């Protein structure tokens, strides 16, 4: 009886001895307070809004809650965006990265599931100088791979890290999509206004060439000095430069759209007139700053990446503890094939394994590296939050004055048109020379050109505000697996 108790006692003593050795490793304390980013920005107070077309209030939902198909109303633009979302190479790369993260998570999730394999063995052997007849042994075995007991949370946290990395990739893909949608919209708008600037320059060139002919005729007739002709020529050349610049910009806009869309598209999808209205929204609601943490996928991606680094720390901590695995085999064996399935041929074995870290300095170093990685990720996360707030506030600053600029350019255009009429009338009645008319023509073109730029800037601010607030990838659109991560 005493002999039967000896083995368990030995095992218990050895286990206690190993655990005491393990204590030689300085095991870090468990972190019961997970790291949470706390941006040094007031997130529950409204944005500083300076124009009557923008609203920041908890009573009105952010425009970021609108799907892009609801926010944009231009049908041609929607078709281009749809093509881009289906064919853009950057989105394809983001999707592949997401698929890779999903596969990694699934591999990790299945990593501790026991695997069973079957083997069949036929062994022929002889003993030299003793037995001329070979001995044959037949075996069929089933083996279960080493199953690790997750007493310390290593496997659980490894799965959690893989899950958080997958969710980070899912939101990173949404970030790419938002950027592509915004870029397509802005390139579409830019094309329309550069086309308008080209048309303005072509019309202006026609008028200025007529003016140049008049000045040359008057100079030949001795009615005016050559100065008027030279200034008229300078205006013609300046207009030709504007035409060349507009054509270059149009080609660049087309190139940008082709790259964004990823496939050839019907030129009829390009706008023919300046885009004066990109959305049906009359009031642009920003919501509260705190909603950025929910609506912006880049911040959601950074948040999950931070959680993944926290899980990595727990995995590194679990490495300080014993690793306990269990393997098992079962099978049948016989020297005669026809007796292989007879009684008495069955065999079974079970093998527990304990791996105890005693002196391993690398464990401590690896743990510290994971902690530093988390601090780096935390710093990047907080920086991303601050950058997001700055983006929104910069756009609000543009919107604060853009309507005033447009109104001022419209008033200036009316004044310049009237100034041209007066200067032209005074010239034809002989009260003034043609230099006043040339000045009026120059001011007309400059004002109309700047007015187009200001109108484009207004439309761009609507696109950029929508993107900066979250771009329609709302927090209700959760990726698969996110619920089990919360």
Automatic annotation (TrEMBL):
Entry's Gene Ontology cellular component terms: cell outer membrane
Major site of localization recorded for this protein: membrane
Subcellular location as annotated: Cell outer membrane
InterPro entries: MdtP/NodT-like, OMP_efflux
Gene3D superfamilies (UniProt xref): Outer membrane efflux proteins (OEP)
Source organism, top-level taxon: Bacteria
Assigned keywords, A-Z: Lipoprotein, Membrane, Palmitate, Signal, Transmembrane, Transmembrane beta strand
Gene Ontology MF terms: efflux transmembrane transporter activity
Leader peptide range in chain numbering: 1-25
Coiled-coil region list: none
Membrane topology type: Lipid-anchor
Keyword Transmembrane: yes
Family of this protein: Belongs to the outer membrane factor (OMF) (TC 1.B.17) family.
Protein name: RND efflux system outer membrane lipoprotein NodT
Organism per entry: Moraxella macacae 0408225
